[in-house]
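User: I'm curious whether this sequence folds into something compact or stays loose and floppy. Could you predict its structure so I can see for myself?
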Amino acid sequence: MNRNALYMVIGGLAVLVVVLGIYVYDKESKPDGVELKIGQGGISIQEN
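Assistant: Here's the prediction. I'll summarize afterward.
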């Protein structure tokens, strides 16, 4: 395996780790429970 291919594999894995980390952080940062929004369109209730 030449060096360029090795660098591409390592770079791809690094990008995968970063994207997976962002996804997990986004999922964990959302609050659990019921979300209540009151706005001009009325009342909205969503269960998370």
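Summary: The radius of gyration is 20 Å. The mean pLDDT is 89.
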